Amino acid sequence: MTFHLAVELTPAGLHPAAWRLPSEDASGAFTARHWLTRAHAAERAGASLVFVDDSATPPLERPGRFVGSLDAVGVAALLGPLTSGIGLAPVVPVTYREPFHVGKEIQTLDHVSLGRGAVQIDVATSALDPRSGTEALRYDERVPRELPALWREAEDTIEVLERLWDSWEDDAIILDEVNDRYIDREKVHAIEFTGEFFSVHGASITPRSPQGRPVVVVRADEPHELEVAARRAQVIRVRTPEAAAAVRASAPDTVTVLLDVAVLVAPTDRAADEQRRALDAFEPWSWEGVVVGGPDTVATALTGLAAAADGVTVRPVAGDAALLAGLLPLAPTGPTLRETLGLPRPTSRYAAAR
To answer: How many Å from the N-terminal Cα to the C-terminal Cα in the chain?
Structure first.
């Protein structure tokens, strides 16, 4: 059996006190070196891709908690030319973002990574969350939206992204110096989209990227997400083995299903347990469902959990994912993320229609 390993990159770790551990580089959490170190650790572990989380939701500030974040697309673009084989998937909450700009950002990521770009589509905080009003006001929107509307808009956004990514045909750039023609205008297409929430006209201003269309990731932890994921995603993330098994049973074979697993890995089982106790001394935390142990213990647990899906997304509580290098029966990585995931390079819908 082979499966895909993904790693969620974080400033410190899932545990709210992880930044206080001597082994963590809390002072460097907002530096390029910090994120590059974590991405290289994931590469050494054999990961197919990494996720960089992001949110516009106001944080819940408490004493001793890590607060602050960088822009996920910016971090992923930084990592593009400084990594070699790993897919890069920033999380983008699209509710208050212009689809045209999101499309351009992710195409840029695919270009600078030579075909390893992806995007995890997310939405704003639901109106049921008390923080949603503050988030909406940050974008000059007075009334927060309900969850069904958030995901209808997200699906429209995915439709627009894919149209924009297709709007330049593969051979639109002709570089005809003799006749002074850089592009063939017949191969650059206006997408002309009008939907419930926005309209987008014209073509992308970014040429078609190495993968044609970057990979789209969607979570599927609740019904509205699941509906969009089933129709639109090439990678689906879930939080429980039961959900992973259900999605895997219903999704096409071309879709990669990844199970989220919180992990605390250290050089030995004893060291991992000591680290867990140190974290609890700073702040008690629920360890339900968290895999704790040395590399062999964690690798065995992840291999067992992956039976319900096509792989796992390791969410480090703290510690170094590189300790898992060589211990998991991982799928080989290809030159592009689509090749790693066994996905074909799509033809532009506009080229196909001509």
So the answer is: 42
Q: Pairing relation of β-strands 193-194 and 199-200?
A: antiparallel
Element of type H or E holding 303: helix 295-305
Predicted confidence (pLDDT) at residue 22 exceeds the cutoff of 90 = no
Q: Could you give the domains of the chain?
A: 4-347 (3.20.20.30)
Share of the chain above pLDDT 70, in %: 97
**Is there a contact between 17 and 279 (Cβ–Cβ < 8 Å)?**
yes
Q: How far is the C-alpha of 303 from the C-alpha of 309, rounded, in Å?
A: 10
Contact, 52 vs 72, CB < 8 A?
yes
pLDDT computed for residue 334 by the predictor: 92
3-state secondary structure of 157: helix
What percent helix, strand, coil does the chain show, rounded to 5? 40, 20, 40
How high is the mean pLDDT of the chain? 92
